[in-house]
Amino acid sequence: MKTKTNLHGQLKALLVAGLLAAPLLASNARAQGQEDNHWAPVNVFVDGNGNQYAYFDEAINWSLGSVPTYTDAGNGNNERVIINGTLGIAGTYVACYMTNNANLYQIIMGYDGTVGGGNLVLTNGAQVQAGVGSGQWTGIAFPNGPSTLYIGPGCNFTCGSHLWVGQGTNNGNPAVGTVIIDGGSLNIPNGQLGVGWNGTGGTNFLTLTNGGKAYLQQWAGQTLGQPGNNSLGILDLADNQSEVIITNVNANDFTQLEANNQLVAYGGQGTVQSTFNPTLGVTILHAVPPVTTNTPVISSQPSNVVVSVGGTATFFVGISNVPVTYQWLFNGNPLANGGGISGAQTATLTISGVTPAEVGNYSVVATNTTHLDQYVTSQSAGLSTTGINLYPVITINGIPNATYVTEYTTSLTPPVTWIPFATNTLGSFAPFYIVDTSTPMSVKRFYQTIQQH
């Protein structure tokens, strides 16, 4: 799933470190019935790069003279929040900064009929809900853009119903919308995401970076736009920690999206993979780093080793093309030198005085010393001891790069007490095996494995 789509600097105007340090402002809030409260900024700041911004939580910036709040009186007595952020000149926008938590009836960005557009930035750990109590949809560049929603680190944006991104035109130009999840999270537990869902041209983006997460209740035909209307939505997973987690999906065919270059990883250089977890009932979209001349190539994989108790075991990995650093893993957990372990950060791992506690699986992560985003994980090699050893083996057929906690109990009679046994992050190879060497064959144990989020 590769593409050469140019993201045309969409982050440039938003990722301004100086803005994040700006002071928090006090709130003068009220609830307003059946009216639109437009964010038309008056108290505008300019950062060192010439970008304009103002605060959501400042009453003077609102057309009704008050910061909006959510009111659910059961009779339609609610207030829509309209984010324009314009100065009356097309393409000149004031970014609206939310540094506070908020629970709002409805948010619409880019609603102005002549100029439109506007940017909403969640920062300072803001937790924002829109339409959660009312079931109202949220619109970005709706109906006029361009508009951008930016969700910063530690921030969460929860939509009570659909999130529509990009719709219609603005003065003959596509009203494109962009959502950037930069270390934060987007949550749509009861509705659809539509990126370019009903536009008349233009490209709309959903970009996840720095471990950003998007939790979607469903994946629909409109999730990445309507190609027949020449309005595309593009998902860009910019790193291998960012994910889209989709519930209520047990089978997906992303072939058409791949053909349209709508699934992008690392800005178009990597690939996007979809993995279905039948236990959790979710489909996860995650990024695979690009394979370039800087990606380490394994010329020699670690091999299985069988030694007697008290003997010495050696594992080796060969890298053929670039200088790398090494980190050996035991059952998915990083190893450190000491207690019979040596070479934990070299090409050769040595285990002296092997005991049953060292029986298990060994792998290694090799990372390019000058291009730290380029790395490779070896296949697992098993260490076992001679003689008859009867130990339970737990097999995990899971999601690459996901972390799993394995627990055990000695009885399934309620109340059941589960005891943590092992925590492992899966590499690129499956299945993954855990050997429980701490229990002799005369002890009965039951196991369960749970994916961490």
Can you offer a commentary on this structure?
With 453 residues, the chain is mainly beta. 2% of the residues lie in helices and 43% in strands. The chain has two helices and 43 strands. The strands form ten sheets. Strands 3, 4, 7, 10, 13, 17, 20, 22, 23 and 25 form a ten-stranded mixed β-sheet that branches. The N terminus is likely disordered.
SSE blueprint and pairings:
Blueprint: H1 17-20, E1 29-30, E2 35-39, E3 45-46, E4 52-55, E5 67-68, E6 79-83, E7 95-98, E8 102-104, E9 106-109, E10 118-122, E11 127-130, E12 138-140, E13 147-151, E14 156-159, E15 163-170, E16 173-174, E17 177-182, E18 185-188, E19 193-199, E20 202-209, E21 213-216, E22 225-226, E23 231-237, E24 243-247, H2 255-259, E25 263-265, E26 271-277, E27 282-288, E28 298-300, E29 305-307, E30 313-316, E31 318-319, E32 324-330, E33 333-334, E34 341-342, E35 348-351, E36 360-368, E37 375-377, E38 381-385, E39 393-396, E40 403-409, E41 419-425, E42 432-435, E43 446-451
Parallel strand pairs: 1-5, 2-6, 4-7, 6-9, 7-10, 8-11, 10-13, 11-14, 12-15, 13-17, 14-18, 15-19, 17-20, 18-21, 20-23, 21-24, 23-25, 29-38
Antiparallel strand pairs: 3-4, 15-16, 22-23, 24-27, 26-27, 28-31, 30-35, 32-33, 32-36, 34-35, 36-37, 36-38, 39-42, 40-41, 40-43
